Amino acid sequence: MRAHVELIHEDDYIFHAGELPYGEGGILERRLSVDEEDGSSSLALHATADWGRAAGVPHADTEFYVVSGSLTYGGRELGPGGYLQVPRGVPMDWLKIHEGAHVLHWREYGDCGFDTAVNLGEAARKADAAGEVTVVDANAVEWVAAPTIGPLTPLYIKLLHRDPKTGFYTRLIRAPKGWSDHRLAHHPCYEEFYTLSGRMAYNFGDIDEGTYCFRPAGVKHGHFVAETEIDWIIRSDGELINWYTTDEWVKWGGTAENYEHSHAPVISTLPVRSRSRGEWSGDGM
């Protein structure tokens, strides 16, 4: 499984040579989080020159999201907000990430393995593959208000992709200035986000552009206050149900609400974290 990463700014990671087999050109990556058991990875790619790869078949569920600059997929150019998802075993067309681009890249349930082909028509779909390639320009998608519980200002969503069988999804989230959730929350699935713009105060550190987090299922977190309008790209490996604690004691207790009887929350102990995000509430104790 992946380690718990509670707020690290991308700039606090070092660069590695991009691990994208059979590509040509200049690409560096920052490894935001990695599952060393199955190769699943969340990466920030930076193109130091044009980088490209021919058509082929990925060994993992594969995603790209353009933060800045652009990439071209099969002749279609995608600028900031461009999103590409390819299920494992499904042929994908040629790809070029243009010099200077900053692109988020995820591989899920598999490693960086890639079977090359001369062109898309020659790429052989795997027998157990499911789904098709998804290409989205998020700028053309409307924000939709998310359901809320209690007196909260709504969050807004742009759904980029959702697996109909597993519920795994990738989506954009926007919180308006002043949005706040004082309750301790946790979820039955993992929650991962990268901050695209804006700023939020949080008891475990500052959240601003470039801040990354990966929480395994069951990790309690909150509270939050949006100091500006703030946007994230968020991924979860299942339906993100909010289990809340109210009447909480300081750090170690509270009244459980709407928990399943078999569920036991996980209390974060020593997650990976970044000092540049600011002091934690427990520092100096």
UniProtKB/TrEMBL annotation:
Keyword Ion transport on this protein? no
Q: Which GO terms describe its molecular function?
A: dioxygenase activity
Q: Does the keyword Oxidoreductase apply?
A: yes
Give the top-rank taxon of the lineage listed in the UniProt record for this protein.
Bacteria
What is the protein named?
Answer: Quercetin dioxygenase-like cupin family protein
- Note one Pfam family from the annotation: DUF4437
Native species of this protein? Actinoplanes digitatis
Record keywords = Dioxygenase, Oxidoreductase
